[in-house]
Amino acid sequence: MFCPKCGSQSSDNTVFCAYCGTRISKREQVANVQSQKHPGEGSAVASLVCGILGFCTVPIILSIIAIVQGDKAKKLGYTGGMATAGTVLGWTGLILGIIGIIFIIIYIIILGILVSNGLLG
Ligand SMILES: [Zn+2]
Questions:
Q1: Most buried of 18, 39, 65, 102 (most Cβ within 10 A)?
Q2: Tens digit of pLDDT for each residue in 50-63?
Q3: Are residues 54 and 26 in the same domain?
C-alpha cells in the first residue's frame, strides 16, 4: 500500500510508514466497522425474546428485562424495530402481569372471606 501522507510505498502488513511514521494500517479501521455493524442488536434481540416470553412464562421479571434491554439497544444506537417491539411487549407484559397479580390477590381475599364465613367446606 501507499502512505496517504508522503506517498511512499510500504508492505501491506506495515502499521506505520517506514519513511514518515504515519499510521497506514487498515486493519484497525476494518475491525471497528465490523464491531459497529449492528450496534445494540444483541440487546434488541434479548428485549424482543424476553418481551414475548414475558407473556407466557414469568411475566413481570422477563418484561422488566425486555424494557431494560430495549432501552440499552436504543442507547447503543440500534434503530431497528426490534428494540421498539421488545420495549412495547415488555411494558404490555408488565402491566398485564401486575393486573394478573392484583386479580390473584383479590381472588385469595374473596376465597379467604368465604372460607372464614363457612361458605366453603
Ligand atoms: Zn509516509
A1: 65
A2: 777 776 666 678 88
A3: no
